[in-house]
Design brief:
It is a single chain. This protein is of the alpha/beta class and 381 residues long. The protein has a single domain (8-375), classed as Ribonucleoside hydrolase-like (Inosine-uridine Nucleoside N-ribohydrolase, Chain A), CATH 3.90.245. It has 15 helices and 17 strands. The protein has helices at residues 8-12, 20-26, 30-34, 76-90, 108-118, 168-177, 193-199, 211-218, 245-248, 251-260, 270-274, 280-285, 294-302, 312-321, 364-375, and strands spanning 47-48, 64-70, 94-101, 126-128, 148-149, 152-153, 184-188, 219-225, 232-233, 239-240, 265-268, 277-278, 309-310, 329-330, 334-338, 344-348, 354-358. Helix 5 links the parallel strand 3 (94-101) and strand 4 (126-128). Helix 4 (76-90) runs parallel beside helix 14 and helix 6 (168-177) crosses helix 7. The longest helix has 15 residues, at 76-90. It is globular. The relative contact order is 0.19.
Length: 381
């Protein structure tokens, strides 16, 4: 398989393993027990999320400032994750400052804009990564933004093409320049292209600091869905090292991100969302409060139910905004390394700035229910 061109679904998980319950029965119950055991050897037990030094506290009076960096269109979990952010903002738990996109197709932008507009926040800045060549196809559901009913967009939006949007680096630098020091949480659920470009950006008229120093001054945490920190079953049911899609699509950029990012990073590995699937019954039943909704329409366009999609990107949102709810355990601190063939490894170190999520079977259902309730929460417009 050519890792640079493979589609997200084929790299992320063979179709036969997309349903966790099926995988668990096929593997004789091995998936939840073995797939959740970290590759790294931890000399100390995992830490509950509530005591994580990199955790970001949020409350109705102190919402978490969020930048959402996504490859919208490559998988429907990006769409659900954006919906979760909007639900949490409506609850006063976060504030979505900007969305930046790493999928290099013009329709990713109008879909993001139609979701933001649906939730009553159509003025949120959106930035794009142009001419990167990263997944230049339109994707399976970004066309939802183009559906017309009686000559009008089904989902109103005014940003009609990514060609009309500013660059991601421009939006990121502007957003950080206007933020309080050490306040912003960046949730990256796609490729590392935009953040690598930001970290290497020079001082300019927007801010006198170059990118690396600007990030260090303004960002509190990067919550990233990337890598794998446990072995993953292949099509034969054999547990193997996994070349995770977000890493494999732009290895150079994630290497640069790891090298230049001086703030704490919280990693949600492939194994977390794999073992925490979104129930298709929610897609069919929980969004009926409105005749049309951009999230279930994206989900159905991607892979129609019955299909329980892993919640990869949603977990990075939940862990970043609600760190004290004990949805996940976290590893001891250390450093993540990325190999030239897209494998991620973790070395424990007291001085390391990286941690990764660990799914506790005792709290997995609690996390799943939170994601379902938030993703399907009615928009407050």
């Amino acid at each position: 398989m050519n890792l640079s061109t493979a589609h997200r679904s084929s790299l992320r998980l063979p179709r036969s393993f997309q349903n966790f319950r099926f995988a668990a029965s096929l593997l004789g119950g091995l998936l939840l027990s073995d797939c959740l055991l970290p590759n790294a050897s931890l000399s100390q037990p995992p830490t509950p999320a509530a005591t994580t030094p990199s955790a970001t506290n949020s409350s109705a009076t102190n919402p978490v400032p969020i930048i959402f960096d996504t490859d919208m269109g490559n998988d429907c979990d990006d769409a659900l994750a954006l919906g979760v952010i909007h639900a949490l903002e409506s609850r006063g738990e976060c504030k979505l400052l900007a969305v930046t996109i790493t999928k290099d197709h013009e329709l990713a932008t109008p879909y993001v804009d139609c979701v933001n507009t649906f939730y009553g926040r159509g003025d949120i800045p959106i930035g794009v990564c142009r001419n990167s060549g990263k997944t230049p196809d339109p994707g399976k559901y970004n066309q939802v933004s183009q559906i017309m009913d009686n000559g009008q967009f089904r989902f109103p939006h005014d940003l009609l093409s990514g060609n009309n949007a500013p660059t991601a680096v421009e939006v990121l630098r502007n957003t950080l320049a206007n933020a309080q020091d050490h306040s912003v949480v960046i949730v990256q659920v796609g490729f590392s292209t935009n953040l690598a470009n930001l970290l290497q950006s020079p001082a300019d008229a927007i801010h006198p600091l170059p990118g690396r120093q600007l990030v260090a001054q303004k960002v509190k945490l990067v919550s990233i869905m990337a890598g794998a920190f446990a072995k993953i079953p292949n099509e034969k049911g054999e547990l193997t090292d996994h070349r995770e899609y977000n890493v494999a699509e732009d290895i150079a950029s994630i290497k640069k991100l790891v090298e230049l990012c001086d703030v704490p990073m919280l990693w949600s590995g492939f194994e977390i969302g794999l073992n925490l699937t979104y129930p298709h019954q929610s897609i069919l039943e929980d969004f009926r409060y409105t005749p049309h909704h951009p999230l279930p329409e994206a989900y159905i366009a991607y892979i129609p139910p019955p299909h329980d999609r892993p919640t990869w990107d949603l977990t990075s949102v939940l862990a970043a905004i609600r760190p004290n709810r004990s949805y996940f355990d976290v590893s001891q601190p250390g450093t993540v390394s990325v190999s030239d063939n897209a494998l991620t490894t973790f070395a424990q170190s007291e001085t390391g700035k990286h941690r990764f999520l660990i799914l506790n079977p005792l709290t997995a259902e609690k996390a799943r229910e939170a994601l379902v309730q938030l993703a399907s929460q009615p928009a407050s417009r």
